[in-house]
Structure formats: C-alpha cells, structure tokens
Design a protein that fits this description.
Elements lengths: L7 H18 L7 H14 L5 H8 L3 H16 L24 E6 L5 E7 L7 E9 L2 E4 L10
Antiparallel strand pairs: 1-2, 2-3, 3-4
C-alpha cells in the first residue's frame, strides 16, 4: 500500500475539524453548579486586589439578587450618595474566604433548576460552607438572599 503525504488543504481541514471538536467540548464555567460556584468564589476572593472581579461575581448572581442590588444602587442614587453600579452594593466583608477550598460537592434537585453546592476545605468538619444555585437558561447562578431595605 502506497501512502501519500497529506496535502496542505487536507491538513487544514483536519485541523479545523479537530479545533471544532475541542471547542465544542469546552464548557463555560457556569455550565455546571460546581463550575459556577467555583467561578463565583474565585471572583469574590480576587475582588480585594482586582476591582473588576466584583463585576464578575455580580454577573454570577441569580436574577433576584442582581435586581435587589440594582434597587439598592438606585436607592443610594436617590439619597444623593451618587451613581453607583449595582455590584458596588456587594459587601466586601462577607466575601473573604475563611478557608482554602479543597473540593466541591454538587447536589442538583430533581427539577434540574435548583442545586446546592457544598464547598469543603481540607478539614471538611470545620471548613464547610453551602452555596445555593439556580439554573437560568443554560447557566447556573448563585442565589443569595439580599435583605430588603428598611422603609424610610
């Protein structure tokens, strides 16, 4: 059997198909509950040294939390505090990681819309927190409670 050297055109086509397969196999970080939880916690952790990280954390919040923070930013503007983006309403003090994350354990409800992600440090008995997530379209978002504002 005689083997020919592949042409440049053939190699280009093969590379294109291979790149397409690799590209399709990559998922967005928020495509899974644990991916969204990890991306959120990474953004929150980075926010102390990278101001743009707060925006990434905000984008990973579920719609009700984003709307509540927008309402707080609007309220601050009406009070004369100035025009603040809604992500500025995230309190930096709750965002400090209390332990180094070792692993995530997701639990998706039977409805496929709600999930809980257990986040563990090295000592799972003392280093543990829980994040609630909700599916919005094809992406998972972190569902946090934003307390309602006190009436003026």
């Amino acid at each position: 059997m005689l083997l020919r050297e592949p042409s440049a055109r053939c190699l280009s086509a093969l590379a294109f198909v291979f790149a397409g397969v690799i590209g399709c196999s990559r998922h967005a970080k928020d495509a899974t509950p644990e991916g969204a939880a990890a991306a959120f916690l990474e953004a929150v952790d980075a926010s102390a040294r990278d101001p743009s990280a707060v925006g990434r954390a905000f984008a990973l919040l579920a719609e009700p939390a984003r709307k509540a923070l927008q309402a707080r930013a609007d309220h601050a503007r009406r009070l004369g505090i100035g025009a603040l983006p809604p992500e500025a309403m995230l309190a930096p003090t709750w965002s400090t990681a209390r332990f180094t994350i070792d692993r995530f354990r997701p639990h998706v409800d039977g409805d496929g819309i709600h999930a809980v992600v257990d986040v563990y440090g090295i000592d799972e008995h003392t280093q543990h927190t829980v994040l609630n997530l909700v599916r919005e379209g094809e992406a998972w978002r972190v569902a946090i409670d934003v307390p309602s504002m006190a009436a003026p």
